[in-house]
């Protein structure tokens, strides 16, 4: 684990461009204020991220995406929406969580329809595993939330199994819903597919 060192990262308008990729980001520098931060992991074309940012200007929203074309589309939506509380970061998701986000800096993580890698031989490529959940927990503020949505029941059941063995996160009955839907969710619902979701809360440390 790298030590926490705030990066002097700057932004090129909307897209985050760090000075380097070995120092932690400083959200207050990126957004120009101190506010609760929500992170959309694999933000796709930015539809869901923009809906979040439009709904609550008192919070800041960061989209993380590894595909350059999607980053460009997200950038365009943020610009057109004139949203000062939204940014996008072109980077691989697991690396960003583990090495770029400061400890206890994120209020809510959203993981909407992660790549299911449906073939059994490809399951090790799935993003959610024990180490990933540990990184999520470290980046969350106390009692922070991790929201997961998938259309794949086998993936959903696997996540539930992993959560049962995770001491840092616990399933919660939090009933609040995010505004808007992602492009994938809209498509899957139009196709009549079942949508599975769960919300995890960071456990309070035992004293």
Overview of this structure, please?
- This protein is an alpha/beta fold and 207 residues long.
- Helices cover 32% and strands 24% of the residues.
- The chain contains 7 helices and 9 strands, in the order ββαβαβαβαβαβαβαβ.
- The strands form 2 sheets. A 7-stranded mixed beta sheet has the order 5-4-3-6-7-9-8, sandwiched between helices. A two-stranded antiparallel sheet has the order 1-2.
- Helix 2 (47-55) links the parallel strand 3 (37-41) and strand 4.
- The protein starts with 9 loop residues before the first strand and ends in a 5-residue tail after the last strand.
Main beta sheet: 7 strands, mixed
In sequence order, what are the helices and strands, one letter per element?
EEHEHEHEHEHEHEHE
CATH architecture: 3-Layer(aba) Sandwich
Looking at CATH, the homologous superfamily is Vaccinia Virus protein VP39
Strand content: 15-25%
Q: What structural class do the secondary elements suggest?
A: alpha/beta
Features:
single chain; 207 residues; alpha/beta; Rossmann fold; seven-stranded mixed beta sheet
Outline:
The chain is of the alpha/beta class. It contains 7 helices and 9 strands; from the N terminus they run E-E-H-E-H-E-H-E-H-E-H-E-H-E-H-E. It has one domain (10-202): Rossmann fold.
Task: Describe how the helices and strands are arranged.
Elements: E1 10-12, E2 15-17, H1 27-31, E3 37-41, H2 47-55, E4 60-65, H3 68-81, E5 86-90, H4 93-100, E6 106-112, H5 130-139, E7 140-150, H6 153-164, E8 169-171, H7 183-190, E9 196-202
Parallel strand pairs: 3-4, 3-6, 4-5, 6-7
Antiparallel strand pairs: 1-2, 7-9, 8-9
Helix pairs in contact: 2-3
